[in-house]
Amino acid sequence: MPRRSRRQPPPRRELNEAARLADRLQQAGYTKRDIARILSRDPSLVSQFYTKNKGAAFVPALQQVLAAVETGGITDLPELASIAARHTRRRTTASGTRARVRTKAVLITPTGSGTGRVGAQAIASGSARLRPLIAEAGHLGLRLAFTVRLAKTGYVHPSGSRTDSPGIRRDVIQRADHTEERSYGSAQTGGFDAADFARRVDAAGGDVTAAVHQWLVESGRIQPDAQILHLEIRTWRPR
User: Fold this and answer.
1) CA 62 → CA 34, 78, 83, 186, distances in Å?
2) CA–CA gap between residue 97 and residue 122 (Å, rounded)
3) Which of 35, 83, 178, 221 has the smallest number of Cβ neighbours within 10 A?
4) How many angstroms separate the CA atoms of 130 and 145, rounded?
């Protein structure tokens, strides 16, 4: 008679409160990506609620969002994001002080200088890491500029066109894969109002990629079906 294996399957890890709340939101029809947008964070963080026991700082926000969905009947992502923002508390260190935000995307110096970059993977999920940078820049009354890369055929105007980027050095960066990087806004031209772009991002449900894409299409700079492959946001304090 074969001996029974003494090995037992590992016990299923009990979900923490953040993961349980995220589960209830998913049962209500929201995806992990939606939850990340509501929290103004990268979708990978929501996955870490389950895999790395993270998310304690977002429990109050998730509770309020869940109540708004289940009791208040609120379904609009920007409105839910606004509710979450009012109840998101920063992590604290062992001494009780507020912990620094670890993502580079929200690091803005006293002069207003801040930079955030995302590549293809983050862009596909809405460039969520850039949203806090834009939101903080808008709150501080900063100016904003950005650089995008996409296929040459996705641009409406030819390389170096003054119509495309008036007042900006028009040395477009061309790459071997038939893509181009072009910049919009600069300290010399005044750039864009960060608060306006923050509102655009909110209107797009927190999707920074979609907000930038919509602006480029509306201003006649790219084709509607063009795909952004790289995105960089820069901020500074107006003089």
Assistant:
1) 12, 14, 9, 38
2) 30
3) 178
4) 13
